[in-house]
Structure formats: structure tokens, C-alpha cells
Amino acid sequence: MRILIAQRSQETHSFNPLKTCADDFVVERGQEVLAANRQRGTALGGIIRAAEERGIELMPSIAARARPGGPVESQIYDQFKRTLLEDIKRLQPDAICLDLHGSVATELIEDCEGDLLSAIRYPRSLWSFAAWGRT
Questions:
Q1: Percent of the chain with pLDDT over 70
Q2: How far is 88 from 9, CA to CA, in rounded Å?
Q3: Quick one: which of 89, 67, 106, 84 has its CA closest to 33?
Q4: Would you tell me how many other CB atoms lie within 10 Å of the CB of residue 65?
Q5: CA torsion through residues 66, 61, 107, 109, sign
Q6: Which of 17, 25, 50, 71 has the fewest beta carbons under 10 Å from its own?
Q7: Distance from C-alpha of 60 to C-alpha of 96, rounded to nearest angstrom
Q8: What share of the chain is helix, strand, coil (3-state, %, to 5)?
Q9: What's the short name of a Pfam family annotated to this entry (predicted)?
């Protein structure tokens, strides 16, 4: 079994006027996701260790973490979403395991987790990036 894994972690506080921007995130891609998170005592670390103990092939996509803060800049969320969706399309995994923490919002999207899961579930929206948050 081949499982694509990804992480996105940031908790949006809508009352915070300062936006969460690209510089606020720690981002890893590809094999770096495994190396940087394998030994961490986090959900992603547990996912990696459990899968490797069972001989499951992991297909790391992206991990992006930021401290709690104001709304995430829309282009940052869009970039994360685009990267993940493109990896899903390119790698064609058997399953997807996401470590999503927080209640992320942007200026345009109040429920980024729901938006992301809908885009994964309904791949026709895969390339309609300009329409995000305007449906």
C-alpha cells in the first residue's frame, strides 16, 4: 500500500489583526518530511513510525507548521493546497493520510480544512484555483 502523507498546522484567531504569512511557516517537502518528523512526538511522527513499522510505503508531500496567529494569507493557503493536490495527481496514492491541526482560515475561506478535503474528494475542482473562496 502506498499512502501519501501531508501536514498543515496553524490555528487561526480571527480577532488577531496580524496575518500569518509565509515567513511564519516551517515547510518541508518530499523526503525531508520523513527525516524531519520521524522522531517527533507529534501526530505526523506517529503516522510515519506506525506506517514504517508495518512496511507501508509513504509518499511524503508537504508539511507546513506555524504558531497560532491571525488569518493565513490566502496565497499561502492556496500554495499549500495546490502543492498537495498536484502531488496527489502526480503520485496516485492508494490512500491519503493528513495531519491537519487547528482551525485555519484565510481572508476568503473560513474553513480551510473543509475546503481542502472537498478539493481532494472532488478532483474537478483541482485546477479551479481562481475560484477558491468564491463559491
A1: 90
A2: 19
A3: 84
A4: 19
A5: negative
A6: 17
A7: 10
A8: 40, 25, 35
A9: DUF1485
Give the model confidence (pLDDT) of 28-47 as tens digits.
Answer: 999 999 999 999 999 999 99
Mapped onto helix, strand or coil, the DSSP state of residue 18 is: coil
Residue recorded with cell 509513504: 58
Q: What are the backbone dihedrals phi and psi of residue 49, each rounded to the nearest 5 degrees, phi first? A: -65, -45
Q: Can you give the pTM of this predicted structure?
A: 0.87
For residue 100 the three cell numbers come to 491537519
Owner of C-alpha cell 511557516: 25
Question: Taking Cα atoms as reference points, which of 121, 132, 133, 55 lies closest to residue 88?
Answer: 121
Q: Which tens digits make up the pLDDT trace of 69-115?
A: 999 999 999 999 999 999 999 999 999 999 998 799 999 999 999 99
- What sign has the CA pseudo-torsion 101, 112, 56, 54? positive
Q: Three-state DSSP class for 122?
A: coil
